[in-house]
Amino acid sequence: MIQNAWLIPVFPLIAFLILLFFGRFLKEKAAYVGIAGLGLSFIVSVMVLFERIGGETYTYVIEWITFGESTITMGYEVTPLNAMMLIVVTLVSLVVHIFSREYMHDDKRIHVFYSYLGLFSFSMLGLVLAPNVLQLFIFWELVGLCSFLLVGFWYFKPEAAAAAKKAFLTTRIGDVGLLLGLVILFNQTGSFDYGEIFAAVENGLINDTLLTAIALLIFMGAVGKSAQFPLHVWLPDAMEGPTPVSALIHAATMVAAGVYLVGVMYPLFLASPTAMTVVAYTGAITAFFAATMALVMTDIKRVLAYSTISQLGFMILALGTAGYVAGLFHLMTHAFFKALLFLGAGSVIYAVHHRQDIRDMGGLWGKMKITAVTFLIGSLAIAGVFPLAGFWSKEEILASALLNGDGFLFAIALVTAFMTAFYMFRLFFKTFTGEYRGGDHDDPHANDPGVEAQGAASVAEADNPRDDSVDQDRVPPAEDHGHHDAPKENSGFMTFPLIVLASLAVVAGFVNAPFLGHQLEGFLIQGLNVGAQPHGELWLAFLSLAVAGGGIALAWAMYYKGAIAEDFFASKAPGVHKLLINKYYLDEVYVAVFVRPTVAIGRFFWEMDKSIVDGIVNLIGRSTRGTGRSFSRGHNGQLQTYGLVSILGGLVVIALAFVIRGYFG
Amino acid sequence: MMENMLTWLVFMPLIGVVLILMIPKENVNVIRSLAAIISGVALILSLIIWGGFERGVSGLQYATTTEWFNIGFLQFNYEIGIDGLSMPLLVLTTIVTTLSIFASFSIVKRVKEFYVWTLVLLTGMLGVFVALDMFLFFLFFELTLIPMFFLIGIWGGKMKEYASFKFLVYTGLGSAIMFMTFIAMFFKSYEAMNMQETTFSMIRMAEIFADPANPEVLTGTVKGAIFLALFVAFAIKLPVFPFHTWLPNAHVEAPTAASMILAGVLLKMGGYGLIRLGFGILPDQAARFATLIAILGVINIIYGALLALVQTDLKSLVAYSSISHMGIVLLGIASFTTSGMQGAIFQLVSHGFISALLFFMVGAIYERTKTRTISELGGLSKSVPVLAGFMLAAAMASVGLPGLSGFVSELLAFIGIFGASESIIPAATTIGVIAAIGIILTAAYLLWAMQRTTFGPMKEKFIGLPDARPMEYVPMIGLLALSIIIGVYPHILSDVINTTVIDIVSKIGG
Amino acid sequence: MVPISLFLSLAAILFCIGLYGVLTRRHLVIVLASIELMLNSVNINLVAFSAIGPFANISGQVFTLFVITVAAAEAAVGLAILIALYRNRNSIDVIKHDLLRW
């Protein structure tokens, strides 16, 4: 089966093509095409994984392009790492496909949605299977395209259109760095193949400065894709896309591609201590900043988005501190529980009629049992509570930050872990406990500055009846299943994926649990020279648990028990609160520093182009014509004037002849 | 017939011209289909040539030389042939022209003349790519000017007179410079061979310049001046900053089909001429001025992109993006590496398809909405989903999305410029990094335009616009498919180009 | 013996008068007449050189006959054009005919 690994991305591609050409005839049935494609991919992935566990790395390539003496090949390869990734991607993608069947069924363009999902799954799987880093880059860009298309799926909303553009452009900045890194790497090693690159690195064929530069440029790509500081700004806005998309692309798979990239290029990073330090600090800073912003957001999806950024920061931090397995392990567990949380959020949003503000929710525990329980499992997992998946992977990250990093990194990781537990349970308590606040007021927070600050888009989407003449495709949910219905549990299409993911969020951690002998680690590092993997001692596990418990307890006290006022911190430090609500004003800074000056330079050049560059051209043209016109004035059509001029001219010629020949002298 | 294939290909459109001239001008449908058939036959001929083209063989193929006429000691030959450089461009020409003829079925004004000029143009363009005699090359080069002048001047937009005259005079100036340079080269080579030999053949000229009997004649100054003059002549056509200002005018005013050919093929003649004559005959001088060319390339990329960023008219945005993309060609050839040179040729071909598609989409949208102002458009995905989808695909191809042809050329050009030897371009890395900013800017202006045209709420006035007609699918699918094919499997192109590229680059020993 | 300079002076004076007439008179008939005057001044020169010039021979006089013939033809054609012009544009005033202007 391992030879047929190429089938894995092909099934979704076929689904995409079918939906592209025949989708409009299939309507809602389009969902089943997508589900079938992904189902087959998942089955093949499982078979490939089992075969790979007992087998060898399999590679197959064909010639892609030749120039001079160099040849670039393309194909596929099954290594331990990508065998694991295949499972993660196909599984999450499959459950998201199933979930969307219900979530998107109001939408007239559901077949388009499924075709995009198919294209995305194809690209992501292609990325994972790539045998060389150029092919990875190609699919890397394709997943970016799919992200663009899916974020902008509701393109008629200006916010969605803007968010799609922002997502593509911001990641593009990182991608250019990555491309340059790859180009320089190619010129140094003459190949894009992982094996040859690592061989060149090991043999010291690349000098240290260049190596660091290459590693940092490649890391730029990861920073863009995995939404690391300072390029993280696109991910929260990308929440304008449909929620299943957020779960699949902006939580579980695509954004993790940056981490995956650092993972597959790991020997290169290991060879450059400077690059490793930059990676570690970027991860730590991102984890911390994103977590602080997650503390104050009130849009359920944005809280999860910042949480995603923060968790990706954790993974990067782990990789930066030599925790190769820790980072990739967390990638896997995070994919499961974050997809779970997003789908749970989607389930909630669907039930409360496309509202996303947690201040409009509450009391859903009794109304949506399955969603609530699975969401709780997800929250516990991300907080790092024993024995759920997040506990094992987070503990390893803390271990590598402590053992290979420095005190600062470890402290930041601990504080972030605390905040993670706090904001997740803030979200949980606000959403599922207390009284339901989404009653019959239509526009509950229209004048609330906090809502405006974090994008009135979400509120507008939820509550404003849209202009129906223009927007016929998406029937406003209010009309569809009644605006004043009480929220209730959704159908099996939505709860089944939650249950699957919840079970994984419980058990996934055991694959690398110390008492089972670090099975995943043994699998991932075979044949790789990534150094010894750090393992923490028992006290670290307890510390981690204590921190998580502290965060949960604080959230419980504030949002469930009410022992501490909800605005306790906000009123103590209003300045900090405002800074956080406004996301450190980074968007504004970027607009002022990059966007406006670029446009201004463009305008300046355009004026210059019109007035000077083209001005000179037109000036030459005009002066030629002007000269001609002034001479033509002499041509008045009077024969006698012409005669006089020619005679005078003749006389002048004669006179000149005399003067020059000297007849008078 | 096989040995005369190229001649058949080049002059076949003229047979079509004669046939069309015999049809009464009222029978527009007959004329349209005949024009499509003629160009289709040319396309098939070019594909047969493509199929018969031997890969991995260096030197010329399908070459013929016949004495044409002589004046005194001047011998003019009809010398044609193709190599890996001209082969893809030949196919590009027939494809883009055929598809643009399909795209022009909506034209109702003076239909007969339109197709006559288009077919004459086709002969001219094909002739440029096969001619190996400098005099013949010049004739064909000039032959493309007049039809394009009429295509813009008769079927153009509001300022068509200004645009067509500017096109004619500006590129005519380029031709004049080229002609003078050819004459200079002729006499210098005559002198260099001790008045023993006269030639207009590019092949022989290259040999003479490489190994003259009397080296005193061809000093560095003389060769440098000749190279720079050639560079200016072709830079106008490509176009290279600061000789680019005719292009936005011409594009904005030209009818859709003419824009497609203009961007798709005519600009490529500049790049082709530069490689064939500039680099082919004077490789040492090309290497000497490589830094200058690379810097101009970067200026083109950044300057074109910045200007595209602030355009309010969709078509002029695409026009400036052409300028930006042609910078990649300069960057690639300046690097003097196989990858860079191949990237440049890839870019010529790929931009031919992509820009033709973009111009077609802009034209199709303009035909329906009657506006090209970006701020007046919006929500087209709703009113014309198919057109908007192709527009988006074209924009993505232009951005250089992997899987589409633009990416391959950018990748190769960047590998080239970063791998350029220090002796040819001293600050290659800096140049490459600055050029990379252009990639971001390209994404910025195209996505900005897409966000405002295809995305967003649908405008009331665009409700009920007709979506793509069956005839419009031909150019759309054709061009996009080609871009995808090259993007997914560039080997199809690279195995034709590679040997020639190695030959060109090896002349400088790099 | 009359010196040749006298013939030449007479011819020059006649030529200048003719030229003046051609360049200044507005009536086309007078312009034509002035052209005749210029031609005749040339005839005087030709005849004079033919008789007493440094290389005197008969061809000068033969040339004069040609000139007279051409002048006659020219007068005929000129007057014909003049009449056609008058019929077309109702005027033979030189100033009013500026068709040479582009």
Automatic annotation (TrEMBL), chain A:
From which organism does this entry originate?
Salipaludibacillus keqinensis
Please list where the region (Disordered) is annotated. 440-489
Listed NCBIfam families: NDH_I_L (TIGR01974), PRK06590.1 (NF005141)
Biological process terms from the Gene Ontology for this record are:
ATP synthesis coupled electron transport; electron transport coupled proton transport
Classify the protein's membrane topology as the record does: Multi-pass membrane protein
Does Ligase count among this protein's keywords? no
Q: In the record, what terms sit under GO molecular function?
A: NADH dehydrogenase (ubiquinone) activity; NADH dehydrogenase activity
What are the record's GO terms for cellular component? plasma membrane
**Major place of residence:** membrane
Which family does the similarity line name?
A: Belongs to the CPA3 antiporters (TC 2.A.63) subunit A family.
Has keyword Transport?
A: no
Sequence ranges assigned to domain NADH-Ubiquinone oxidoreductase (complex I) chain 5 N-terminal in this UniProt record: 64-114
Basic and acidic residues bias located where?
Answer: 463-488
Write down what this protein is called: NADH-quinone oxidoreductase subunit L
The NADH:quinone oxidoreductase/Mrp antiporter transmembrane domain sits at 130-420
From TrEMBL, chain B:
User: What family name appears in the similarity comment?
Assistant: Belongs to the complex I subunit 4 family.
Task: Establish whether keyword Cell membrane is in the entry.
Answer: no
An example GO biological process term is:
electron transport coupled proton transport
**Membrane topology classification:** Multi-pass membrane protein
Tagged with keyword Chaperone: no
An example of a GO molecular function for this protein is: NADH dehydrogenase (ubiquinone) activity
The record's subcellular location field reads: Cell membrane; Membrane
**What GO terms fall under cellular component here?**
plasma membrane
- Under what name is this protein listed? NADH-quinone oxidoreductase subunit M
Among NCBIfam families, the record links this protein to: NDH_I_M
* Pfam families reported for this sequence: Proton_antipo_M
* Keywords, comma-separated and alphabetical: Membrane, Transmembrane, Transmembrane helix
Q: Which residues form the NADH:quinone oxidoreductase/Mrp antiporter transmembrane domain?
A: 131-429
Enumerate the transmembrane spans: 6-23, 30-53, 85-107, 114-132, 138-155, 167-187, 225-247, 254-275, 287-310, 317-338, 344-366, 387-418, 424-450, 471-492
TrEMBL record, chain C:
Q: Which domain of life is it from?
A: Bacteria
* GO annotations of cellular component type: NADH dehydrogenase complex; plasma membrane
GO molecular function terms attached to this record: NADH dehydrogenase (quinone) (non-electrogenic) activity; quinone binding
Question: Which family does the UniProt entry place this protein in?
Answer: Belongs to the complex I subunit 4L family.
* Substrates-to-products reaction catalysed: a quinone + NADH + 5 H(+)(in) = a quinol + NAD(+) + 4 H(+)(out)
Q: How does it associate, per the subunit comment? A: NDH-1 is composed of 14 different subunits. Subunits NuoA, H, J, K, L, M, N constitute the membrane sector of the complex.
Keywords for the protein's UniProt record, in alphabetical order:
Cell membrane, Membrane, NAD, Quinone, Translocase, Transmembrane, Transmembrane helix, Transport
Q: InterPro entries from the entry?
A: NADH_UbQ_OxRdtase_chain4L/K, NUOK/Mnh_C1-like
Any one Pfam family here would be: Oxidored_q2
Task: From the Swiss-Prot or TrEMBL record, state where the protein is found.
Answer: Cell membrane; Membrane
Matches recorded under PANTHER family: NADH-UBIQUINONE OXIDOREDUCTASE CHAIN 4L, NADH-UBIQUINONE OXIDOREDUCTASE SUBUNIT ND4L
How does this protein sit in the membrane?
Multi-pass membrane protein
| Name of the protein | NADH-quinone oxidoreductase subunit K
Q: What does the UniProt function comment say about this protein?
A: NDH-1 shuttles electrons from NADH, via FMN and iron-sulfur (Fe-S) centers, to quinones in the respiratory chain. The immediate electron acceptor for the enzyme in this species is believed to be a menaquinone. Couples the redox reaction to proton translocation (for every two electrons transferred, four hydrogen ions are translocated across the cytoplasmic membrane), and thus conserves the redox energy in a proton gradient.
Q: Identify the Gene3D superfamilies for this entry.
A: 1.10.287.3510
Q: What is its main location?
A: membrane
Q: Name the HAMAP family on file.
A: NDH1_NuoK (MF_01456)
> Which BP terms in the Gene Ontology apply to this protein?
ATP synthesis coupled electron transport
Q: What class of enzyme is it?
A: translocase
Annotated transmembrane regions:
6-23, 30-56, 62-86
Name of the gene: nuoK
The EC number(s) given in the record are: 7.1.1.-
